[in-house]
Amino acid sequence: MKHIITKLNQAFDHRIRLGIMSILMVSDWTDFNTLKETLDVTDGRLASHIKALEKEGYIEVRKRFVGRKPNTSYRVTPSGREAFQGHLNALEELLNNAKE
C-alpha cells in the first residue's frame, strides 16, 4: 500500500487545488469569479492556489477584457490533465485496497 501513496501528486494535496482542478477538468475556460464562488474562498486564497498550479504548468491563464472589464480565465493544460488523472487513479487504487 505504501507504493500507492507515492503515486499521489503533492500539488493536489489541498482541497482548494483539488476543487480548482476538478472544475477545470470538466469545463473549457472558467473565470476567476466562478471559481471563487463555486469553491467559496477569498480572492487571496484562490489566487495563491492558482499560482501554485500555474507554476507546475497544470493550468493556463488567459487575461482579456469583456467590454471594459478585465476578465481572467483558466483552463487545464494537457500536462495538468495527465497529472490530475494520475492523482485520481492513485486515489482510486488506494480506496480499492482499503476495502480489501
What's the helix and strand layout?
Blueprint: H1 2-5, H2 15-25, E1 30-31, H3 32-39, H4 43-55, E2 59-66, E3 69-76, H5 78-99
Antiparallel strand pairs: 1-3, 2-3
Protein described:
By secondary structure, the protein is an alpha+beta fold. It has a single domain (2-99), classed as Arc Repressor Mutant, subunit A (Orthogonal Bundle). The chain has helices at 2-5, 15-25, 32-39, 43-55, 78-99; strands spanning 30-31, 59-66, 69-76. Strands 1-3-2 form a 3-stranded antiparallel sheet. A hairpin with a 2-residue loop joins strand 2 (59-66) and strand 3 (69-76). The mean pLDDT is 93.
Brief summary of the model shown:
This protein is of the alpha+beta class.
Largest sheet: 3 strands, antiparallel
Instruction: Characterize the overall form.
Output: elongated
Count of the domains: 1
**Amino-to-carboxy terminus distance:** 11 Å
Count of helical segments? 5
Question: What would CATH call the architecture?
Answer: Orthogonal Bundle
Strand composition percent? 15-25%
Kindly provide the name of the CATH class.
Mainly Alpha
Rg (CA only): 15 Å
Assign the CATH topology: Arc Repressor Mutant, subunit A
| Average pLDDT figure | 93
Which segments are poorly predicted (pLDDT under 50) over 5 or more consecutive residues?
A: none
Which structural class is indicated by helix and strand composition?
A: alpha+beta
- Lateral arrangement of strands in the main beta sheet: 1-3-2
